[in-house]
Amino acid sequence: MENIIHYLSENIYLIVIFTTTIFMLLNSRNRIKEELQKNSRKLNSLLLQVPVGIFFYDRELKIFKHNTLFYKLFGLGKNLNGFNLNDLKDKKAISIIKNTLHENGQNSEFGSYNLSFKEKKIWLELRCSPLLDENGNIIGGIGTLEDKTIEHQSYEKINYMSLHDSLTKLPNRRAYHDYMENILIKDEHKSLYSILF
Predict the structure, then answer these.
(1) Is the full-model pTM beyond 0.90?
(2) What are the average pLDDT values for consecutive 10-residue runs of the chain, which has 197 residues?
(3) Is residue 93 classed exposed, middle or buried when 0-12, 13-18 and 19+ CB atoms within 10 A define those classes?
(4) DSSP-derived secondary structure for 20-34
């Protein structure tokens, strides 16, 4: 009987150590899981608040995640998850988005485009980079949109001012020079010449 009691006391001690270890591992696992969830919420919060429109798309050019500013810039009154980027009006933007999926991911392309579905014309800067999985395979893309309408309007205003007289608003010498250069560049004017004094 003593042997049985001694055997049980040793095993109970091992069982207590084993249960304590399992409890500590589970508790640690729960803390890690809570920490991961907390970090995920922070990351999502940052994504939603960043002052640039951000969107993620798959290989079929369908959006699967975007932030609030992207939604506002894009101008559609519905959820954009699942929206096919092939439906954009600007074909140059579509080609940049597609090219990102076929390159090695070392560069980003950008330009000013009218991508919005809003009535008012706005100019957006589009940057795209490939979205890679853990093996380095391209599984989609990440795009950013930044409103460049004010800069574009300023450029047009400065360009107009440089090509027109400030008092009369008539084209100036520089505008005439640019106009003549454009005419001379055209193929139909390559064989005809005239001299103006």
Answers:
(1) no
(2) 60 70 77 85 78 89 88 74 85 84 59 63 82 88 86 89 90 89 78 63
(3) buried
(4) HHHHHHHHHHHHHHH
